Amino acid sequence: MDNNRDLDLDSIIAEVKAQYEDIANRSRAEAEAWYQNKFQKLQIIAAGHGDDLKTIKNEIRELNQLINRVRAEIDQLSKTSGQLALKDARVKLSDLQQAIQNSKDELARLLRDYQELMNVKLALDIEIATYRMLLEGEECSGDEQLIYHEWRWSSEQWWIWSEGWWRRGRQWCWRQPGPDNGRGWCWRLWYKQWDHYWREQL
Questions:
Q1: What's residue 130's pLDDT?
Q2: Going by C-beta distance under 8 Å and a sequence separation of 6 or more, which residues neighbour residue 7?
Q3: What is the pLDDT of residue 70?
Q4: Can you tell me the distance from the alpha carbon of 127 to that of 201, in angstroms, rounded to the nearest whole number?
Q5: N or C: at which end does the chain have fewer Cβ atoms within 10 angstroms?
Q6: Over the stretch 119-137, which tens digit does the pLDDT of each residue have?
Q7: For strand 159-168 and strand 184-190, is the pairing parallel, antiparallel, or unpaired?
Q8: Any transmembrane segments, and where (predicted)?
Q9: pTM exceeds 0.90 for this model
């Protein structure tokens, strides 16, 4: 009984193998036919492109001849009207330079306007923060509290120059920037706290 099973299995394997070989042979034949057809079409296209290449080469040769003639005419015209062309170029250059200068002036004006807006915004932010500290009873640098008077901002250093009334305990005093040497009291806003600094120059 086992021998019969072995014979059946061998015959099945042989049959499957024969089927796959037949499929492989047919696929190979179909692939060869497809590639042969494709190759023939490419040969026809290449022949047509060869004719196109010849035509394009002739056109390029004619264009080169035309370019040479135009260059000769340009050389001749430059000898007779070179000064006029140079003058026209200078006029165009002057117009471009003027347009660039106008753009720079407009940019400078916009920057000044932006600087003024930033100064106003910064002053409002400082005033709001100062009044909030006064209302909440917070202290600024020890037991001193500032009553806002004037702030001046240096955009180069991002520092704030202060001037105004200060209160220490029950006494009031006026504090302003130092003498002409530029010394004074400077403050900056850092993590929503006022840190006290002394700077030689702004």
A1: 64
A2: none
A3: 67
A4: 24
A5: N
A6: 767 766 676 666 666 655 5
A7: antiparallel
A8: none
A9: no
Closest CA to 130 of 146, 150, 151: 146
Residue range 61-69: mean pLDDT, rounded? 72
In the structure encoding, which two tokens stand for residue 126, read together? Answer: 């400082």
- Closest to 133 (Cα-Cα) out of 155, 166, 100: 166
Which string of DSSP letters, residue by residue, matches 69-99? HHHHHHHHHHHHHHHHHHHHHHHHHHHHHHH
Q: Which residue has the tokens 């019969």?
A: 4
- Please tell me the predicted confidence (pLDDT) of residue 49: 59
Across the chain, mean pLDDT equals 60
Q: Is the pLDDT of residue 3 over 60?
A: no
Q: How far apart are CA 117 and CA 102, in angstroms?
A: 23
HSE of 35, CA atoms in CB hemisphere, 13 A: 6
Q: Put residue 26 in one of left, alpha, beta given phi > 0 → left and psi -120 to 50 → alpha.
A: alpha
Contact 146, 152 (CB under 8 A): no
Q: Amino acid identity, residue 179?
A: P
